[in-house]
Amino acid sequence: MSEPISRRRFLELGAATAAVPHFHVPVRRRAPAPAAVSSANGLRSVQIAVEKMRAGVSPVEAAVLGIEPVENDPEDDSVGYGGLPNEDGVVELDACVMDGPTGLAGAVAALRNVKNPAKVALLVLRRTDHVLLVGEGALRFARAHGIPEENLLTEASRRKWLAWKESRSKTDDWLEPGENEPAGARPKVERKTGTIHVGCVNEAGDLGGATSTSGLAFKIPGRVGDSPLIGCGNYVDNEVGVAGSTGRGEAVILTNGAAYVVHAMRQGRSPTDACLDACRRVVACTRIPRLLDGKGRPDFQVNFYAVNKAGVTGAAALFPSRHARMTANGPELVDSAALFER
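Request: output the structure for the sequence above.
Response:
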């Protein structure tokens, strides 16, 4: 039988134990299943992205491959081929990608004649020491890498552009067909915003994201929105998560929206709550009366999407909206959290 330990000896042993350094042993988390989140036009995109990651493709490339069919779709007039043009009738595309493991990014803006700007952005990441190429320089870079050129303005988009041109002012000389008739009136033409973002995480917990757009319909030539700007339309932190945005790009630029979402997740916020936080920041930073509705709310839409390192997805918007996600249940189109009702 052991002898009783005196109080003095007990304290000596305790002091000796305290002197031994304690090393932090990280808790091993179960690897997440591959997951992806996207804007509502990315239902097929999230499925493709997850399938590619399961086949060993990196998250950033999987995001680009998920976006590509939407860029190729002439029916989606907010992205790629068939995107709505600038005020001169010319389609200009923007895109960016960001890779979690390396922390590198690539982007292009005001790119003409190339329907897959996300692919070109990935080349910028891989083949240059730059982040962003614009305009003619971006086109020459794409041409040097053998990317085919084509006219991106479809007949449907041309007609929408012409309708806008004919109805944009009460004092110009452009008339809507039928406006010379006795009951003729100028219809309201929507200046559409639209984009696709895909954020991905693989089984190893590595992250990647991509965003692609034709930008604000009928914009001033050379206008660049949030989509090709790292930290605005897309941001990745491989320790935390990835986030992206669609909607009014100027509001997202002024709030560094995607980075704001990721930083909120770093502070422990869930993807959905982090997206709501970013929406609240947009509201707080929107003060000019022309941008507010009759209730003092932003008179535009902004959406944020996020997925964290554990594979949890989330999204939020200023007003009711939907988003796509790919989880163990397959591709789903679900409601986003919203700050306001319509």
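The chain has nine helices and 13 strands.
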